[in-house]
Amino acid sequence: MAAEIHHLKTSDSIGKAAALLHSLVPRAQCFCVYDRSGNCIWSSDGVEDYEIDAFVAELPDEVVLALRQQAEPLKRSLPSGRTVLALPVPGPGDEPLGLLVALFSKNAGKSASFNPNLIRNILAPAVDVIADGYRLTSRISDAEQRFALLEKELELVYRIDERIHATNARHSALAQLVGQSGRYFGVNYSVLLIPSKRIRISATHSTWKEVNRKSVDRYLIEQLLPKLDGDAAPAVFNVPPLPGEEGLAANGFELLACPLHDSHGNVEGVLAQLGRINGTTFSKSDRRFLAHVVRKVEYVIEQSYDAMTGFMNRKSFEAQLRESWKALRSDEENHQVIYFDLDNLQLVNDNFGHKAGDDVILRFARILEEGLPKNGVLSRLTGDDFCLLLTNVDTDAALDYAARVRDRCSELRYLEGMRSLQVTISTGIARFTRASGDHGAVLTAARMACETAKAHGRDRVEVYDDQNQSVIRRYDDMQLVSSIQQALDDGGFELLAQPIGPLRSKTTNPRFEILLRMTDTDGEKVPTKALFSAAERYRMMPQIDRWVVSHTLAKLSEARDFVEGQAAIFSINLSGQSLGDDDIFDFIQQEIRHSKVPATSLCFEITESAAVSNLAKAASFIANLRELGCSISLDDFGAGLSSFAYLKNFEVDTLKIDGGFIRDITENRISKSMVAAIVQVAEVMGLETVAEYVESDKTSKMLAGMGVHYAQGHAIGRPVAIDAVLDELSDLLRSSTV
Length: 738
Description:
Beta-Lactamase, alpha+beta, single chain, 21% strand
C-alpha cells in the first residue's frame, strides 16, 4: 500500500509538467515516466501502452545506466513503426532515478527533420523539473513513512506505560512487555531472561513453535549474556545455525538484544528479539525502541523485586497470589504458602551490626533458593520475614521443603572473632484453596502458624488447619505428649549407644554416647526433633532424663564387670530443664549407688546454652557430679555468643565442639579457625575435645591434625542398641583374658 501511495504522489507531481513537455516538443504523441524497476509511474495520455512497457522492460540495466554518459538519447523503433526516445531522469550520483520516454508517430520518427539530440536539449529543463519533483516526493514519502513508524512506536510506548501503571507494576506487566514488543518487531521469538530471579517470559510466533526454545534460551544465557556485560545499548547479532534444529532456526538468524541492569549497574538479564518474520534487518529505530522497552522492564523489576535478595516484594507477591488463586480450577486443587521468620536476627544486629544481619539474610535467601522447586515463588515480605508459594502440591510436600530448610539452619551461624550466634527459623504453613478466598487470608493464616511456632519455642514448623481454625504440628503435640507419657510408663523408649572414637591416642577404653529413640502407639518411629520439641514445650524433659539415667544404669549394672574391665565411659545427656530441677542430683546419686556402676564410667553432657542460662545452679551441679566421680562434657560448645568467657565458670573435663562447625570444616575457613581456637583453649585448660557430626574420613583426618582428641559421627560409627554394645564389650574382655 505504501508503494502505491508513493507512486500516486509521484504521478501527481510529474503530471504538472505535462503541458510543459508538450509545449516543448509538440510533435510527440505522449510522454511516459518509468522508475528503475521498469514500472510506469506516469503517462501524459493516461493510457497504458503495452508496447512501450515491453520496450522498457527489455532494456538491459547497463544500457539504462550508460544513458547519463551518452550525448544522444536512446532511439528505438517499435514493432508498430512508432519511434521512442528514452532520456535518463537524473538522480544522486551517476545512477538515474528512472526514464522519460517520448513516443512519436511513424512519420514523425522517419522525418529527416527528426533530431534526437535537439529534442534532448529541448527537454533537458523539463527533465530536471521532473527529477526535482520525483526526489522531493520521495523524500516526503520517506518522511511520512518514518513519521508513521514513530507514531506507531509512540502509540505502543503510551499503551505500555498505561498498562504498566494500571497494573501497579505487577509481575504480569513483564509478560505484556515481552508480548507487545515481539509483535511490534514482528519476530519469531521474543524472550526475557533474568536467571538470578528465575524469570523466563517468552512469546513465540507460529513459525517457531517446533523450535527447541530451551536450547535457544541456553544459548542466550551462556553465549550472548557474557558479551553484553559492560554494555548499555541494544546490539544486533548474527546467530549461527543452532545444532539439531530444523527449519528457520537451522539457517541462523539475526537477533536484537538489550541487557538489563540491576540497581548496582550489573548485567542481570537480557530482552531479546529473535529473527524477523519477514526477513528484514533491525534498524536504528528498532534499537532505540528496544532500549525504551528495557527501561520499562527495569522499572517493573525495581518496583516488583527486593533489591537485596532478588525475591519478589510484598506487593508483587500478593499479585502473584491473586493470579495463582485464579488458576485453581476445582475445590480439590490446592497450593501451599510457607511463611519463614528468622527468630533472632535482632540479636545479630545488636551484637554484630546491621551489616552482619544483612549477611545472614542473604545466606538464608540462598538456602531458600538452592532447593527451590520449579513451581515455587519466593518473596521477602519484610526485613526478616520470607514467604514461599508452592503451586499444585499438598501439605506433605510443603513440610518436606520446610524441613530441608530448617535442617540447613546450622549454616546461619554468624561468627566474628571468638563470638558466634546461631540463627534459627520459625515456619508456618497454610493451604491455599479456592475456599481460601482473598489472598490476604492465606497469608495471614501462614503468618499465624509461624507466630505459633515462635510461641511454642521457635526453631520449629507449624501447620495451619483451615478445617478447625487451629494451628497444629505435623505430629499433633497433645497426641505426642500422650505417647511420650505412655512410653515413660510402658517402656516405649529405646536406648542406643554411638561410639566416640579416639583421634590422637592409642587408648583402648571405649567411649559411647547414650541416645534415645521412641516408637509411638501406632508402631511408627517418632522423629527425634519432634520428640524433644514436644517434651520441652510441655516440660517433660526432667521425666525423660530420669528415665534415661535409670535405664542406662540398669543396663550397665547387668554388665558391670565388662564395663569396668574395659574402662568404658558412657555419656548421658541432661537437659536445661533437668538442671533447674533441685532434686536431679540426689536422684542421680541414688541411681549410681543402687546400680553399683562406677561413677568413673559415667560422663554427663550438658549443653553450653543450658549451663549459661543458670550459671550458679549449673556450676554447683557440675561440682557435685565431679565430686561423685563422674566426668562432665560441655556439649554444643561454641554455639553461644561468649563461649570462652563462660568456660572459666565450669569445672568440666571435655569440650564437645558444636556440630555446626564440624559439618563444613573442610570447606569453611571460619569453622576451621573456630575449631582451632577451641582446641587451643582446651589444651591450655587441660581439657579433652570431642568433635560431633564427623561424617567423612577427610573430616576425621583434618580434626586429628588440628589436635582434636575424639570424634563422633557416622564416619566413626552409627548408633546401635545398647545391648549390642555391652555384648561386644563382654566379648572383648573375654578375648583379652584368654
